[in-house]
Amino acid sequence: PGRAGTARFLAQHNTWGFVATRAARGKIQGMPYGNCLLLSDGPVNNSTGIPFFYVTPKDNTVTDLLKNPMASLTLPEADGNFCRKNVIDPEDPRCSRLTLMGQMVTVPPEEVEFAKQAMFSRHPVVRKWPRSYEWFFMKMNIEHIWLQSW
């Protein structure tokens, strides 16, 4: 219940989020850039609230993050029950949104097994993604939290 419960619910139940970075390449260098990424905050039975990502350096978002790790992650209530049950568009302000801000870092070796369990338990298909893309795990070290819950 309450704002903290809403934030925890969104972190646990969203399977994707919108990541915003500062572009680090070409003509758009320094401009805001955003992309949707799959995420998991832990295995289904062990939610941590810390978002983990399975990423490739071929993704422009990751290129940005490797040069400047500051990012924001927005998690909409699109997968929640309130908006669906009340037939409210997920972009309606009455549908909650959680934005986490902080540094995106490579998962250290001692946490990689947990990151694998977190991501693969919620997104089994990623195991089949092409190995030649040099996938690795990142997580967000959360510094600020903003919840829109009207």
Number of domains: 1
Overall structural class, as computed from helix and strand content, comes to alpha+beta
Count up the helices.
Answer: 4
The first-level CATH class is given as Mainly Beta
Overall 3D form: globular
The helix fraction, in percent, is 10-25%
Termini separation: 14 Å
CATH superfamily: Electron Transport, Fmn-binding Protein, Chain A
CA-atom Rg in angstroms = 16 Å
Number of strands: 6
Mean pLDDT: 91
Per CATH, the architecture is Roll
The share of residues in extended strands comes to 25-35%
**Strand arrangement across the biggest beta sheet:** 2-1-4-5-6-3
**Main sheet summary:** 6 strands, antiparallel
CATH fold topology: Pnp Oxidase, Chain A
Sketch the topology as an H/E string, one letter per element: HEEEHEHEHE
Low-confidence stretches: none
How would you briefly describe this protein structure?
Residues 4-150 form the CREG-like beta-barrel domain. It is found in: Secreted. This protein is α+β, with helices and mostly antiparallel strands and 150 residues long.
